[in-house]
Design goal:
Number of strands: 11
Largest sheet: 7 strands, mixed
Distance between the termini: 40 Å
Radius of gyration: 14 Å
Low-confidence stretches: none
Structural class: mainly beta
Length: 121
């Protein structure tokens, strides 16, 4: 059973930084897409960033230039480095995985439980 476990969330002041991690277990596909999403209560889930097995990355316009998605294949871990955080970045952050290139993904097959990020002004 594929398992994704997020960590690294917390409370920071505006302008601060956090690095989220997502440990991915039993996901042995050579073609894949890994992504970060976020959601606040009462709002739809928003795609933040994604990276696929070709190394291609995509970012939401709201985080371009501030967030960086990366992966450590040897450690089976996905990261999201978040700099210059803003109060509007406050949300539950989820990682997700799918055995297709990102351009082919409609709904991710596998999801983590989430890690909370709170940015105060």
């Amino acid at each position: 059973q594929v398992e994704l476990v997020e960590s690294g969330g917390g409370a920071v002041q505006a302008g601060g930084s956090l690095r989220l991690s997502c440990a991915v277990s039993r996901f042995t596909y050579t073609t894949y897409c890994l992504g970060w999403f976020r959601q606040t209560p009462g709002q739809e889930r928003e795609g933040v960033a994604a990276i696929d097995s070709d190394g291609d990355t995509t970012y939401a316009d709201s985080v371009k230039g501030r967030f960086t998605i990366s992966q450590d294949n040897s450690a089976n871990t996905l990261y999201l480095r978040m700099n210059s955080l803003k109060p509007e970045d406050t949300a539950m952050y989820y990682c997700a995985a799918d055995p297709k290139l990102c351009t082919m993904v409609r709904d991710f097959n596998y999801w983590g439980q989430g890690t909370q990020v709170t940015v105060s002004s």
